[in-house]
Amino acid sequence: xxCASPVCGWATDRIRSRRTFLLIxxxxxxxxxxxLLAAKSLVLIIVARTLQGVxxxxxxxxxxxxxxxxxxxxxxxxxxxxxxxxTGLAILAAxxxxxxxxxxxxxxxVFFICFGLLGLDMLLRLLVIEKERAExxxxxxxxxxxxxxxxxxxxxxxxxxxxxxxxxxxVLDDCASLRSATSGTDDRGTVTNVKSWRDxxxxxxxxxxxxxxxxxxxGCLVQxxxxxxxxxxxxxxxxxxxxxxxxxxxxxxxxxxxPALTSPLIGWVADRYQARLPCIAGSSLAxxxxxxxRLVTDGTAKDKIILCCLVAxxxxxxxxxxxxxxxDIVHAVNSMDAKGQIGPRTGGSYGQAxxxxxxxxxxxxxxxxxxxxxxxxxxxxxxxxxxxxxxxGASIVPIAVWAGNHKPAKEEDDEITA
Length: 418
Prior knowledge:
- The protein is mainly α.
- It has one domain (4-128, 206-417): Up-down Bundle (Growth Hormone, Chain: A), CATH 1.20.1250.
- Helix content is 80%, strand content 0%.
- The chain has helices at 4-12, 18-38, 42-70, 76-104, 107-126, 131-156, 161-183, 197-201, 204-208, 211-241, 246-251, 254-257, 263-273, 276-293, 301-338, 350-379, 381-394, 396-402, 409-417.
- Helix 1 runs parallel beside helix 3, helix 2 runs antiparallel to helix 5 (107-126) and helix 13 (263-273) packs across helix 15.
- The protein starts with a helix and ends with a helix.
């Protein structure tokens, strides 16, 4: 997923239809899942899982980019929250559903459920009407109405058939010039105001040079590291300290994942008060909770309650940071576009921005288990949670300086009007 994301981001920004790119990713994911079902050797399993990662990169790049294209920037946090809400529900439901189906029906039935969900997803993608396509349909409809109105006018005024064609051509030319002006192209269909061929071909470099976007990506990397760290060492700790079995080790993840259901509310807060405030609050809360986890060492009922409460606080804190940062990526790209820092593209830069997000999250997901596992083996539970708390606290400084500095679109329009 890390390696495929930049290519997917570049491609989805240059394919005019993000819906088509999403469908390609879902078809590839279906093929990879079928290969995993049929795999009988370790090599085929590795190949299938690799293809699943590549196809997941397509979906996780084109999906948020399509959402960013379709939603009012002043409401992007709330809708990113709905996406996080759906992801949290899937994380909660998938192990339970998969386990029950596997035990009751068998191994193949689990994959049939996957195929059913993928088919439903593809059907829903076909029903999506992209914003650009809808706007083009409205423009074409208005063009036809303008031409028809002009024809009626010329007929009633009896100006003659010879004058009707030039007038009709004039109306069509006006409509074409309007579309040309709004799309940033000249009469020959070539893109104008291109800053440089490098920005046009590969704006990833330009995106990475933005302190604000780089801060958002760093924050996402830290959140992924923290989440996968606690996810990897928590079952080992409760088994050692509380002597819990697999059921208890699984249930302890409920307090960690349930707070993800508050994502739409957190996104609304980010839309209203910008990303900086909830991100600072979440990072501070996570740092405190991680440090306090080092106090949980005994198997008493009090320690069990404290552990579950602290894990729930960590889950809420991580959500409080991640959702606003995902929304702030859109505002960062919009700000760079408004300043002319990125050359014109076919489909904007959202795809490449979320490709960088995927790379940051994938890197954090790889670093987290390795870091936490190594620290726990070498230094113990207390030192591990202390380091994780310090890591969360360290992310506060760049977030406070660079993240979430945007104005609502209505305020910007009022300033321009004034």
